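Revision sheet: structure tokens.
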Amino acid sequence: MVNWKNWNLFLTTVFLCLSINLSYAQPAIQSAINKQEILIGEQFTLTIKADFSKYNYVFHWPILTDSMAHFEMVNSRIDSIYNNQNLSGIVNTITFTSFDSGKWVLPSLLVKVETIKQDSSFTFFTDSLPITVSFSTSDTTKQIRDIKPIKEAETTSSIGYWIAGIVVILLLVALFVWWRKRKNKDPYTNKLSKLTAYEEAIQELKNLEGYNLSIREEVKIYHTKIGEIFKQYLSRVYQLAYANKTTDEILLLLKAQNYNHELLSKISASLRCGDAVKFAKYLPPILESAEAKKSIEELVDVIQKNAALNSST
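Predicted:
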């Protein structure tokens, strides 16, 4: 004979277990990056999104140091997602950069999720994602020209070359003498020579505030001067010729000085913005131009403070 009392107790227990499992339905985790190819020092972001229907979860996001193989973390931010004023998900946005050229793989990251009552947990791994880090791309738009036929060399007298060489040497000597006299008479040059590298850079950067950043011609001059001032400052501080260095070369040299990753990333954005203005006729927003100058000022201040600390020790 069936014991209906025990049978009802069994069905009630099964129903409660199913209700608990449904109330803690496994959240959905998604991950993606916004770029698969970056330039050296450029930033990219990894987005980890968790969707769920209730407030029953505690998320243990990946524990990252500020650097891993080939990649360096700049910052991490966690935002909440609301649907009809109800919490429906969480997004963890992690910003990375890299100064190692090559084809690399951003490794899988562990995300652990527990219920609030800690009676159930889930483990997720983000996808491993390929990233290509490269130097500035070369111009591939030049047309291929036909090979020209070989021409016989014409024989001429060498006397003309000797005369031309002597004239060029005399002109160079005259130009050098004129430049020396002009330099000695120029009070502005003498004034600058008395300033320290830091004072000169800050003064020159402050002078840029007079440019109208809504006029294309003035924007180009503004960003050109930012680059020149920064390279001149680095040349004086490190006693190296930075004037002809490319943006990638400067970033790698600064990377070797172990400056803050976030600051280096800002410098990268500032210098690349200047390159885009000069060579691609890019017209940045006024705020972006102002941020470019501010980032240079920040690094100049950091270098100055480090130099002061080193001299005191």
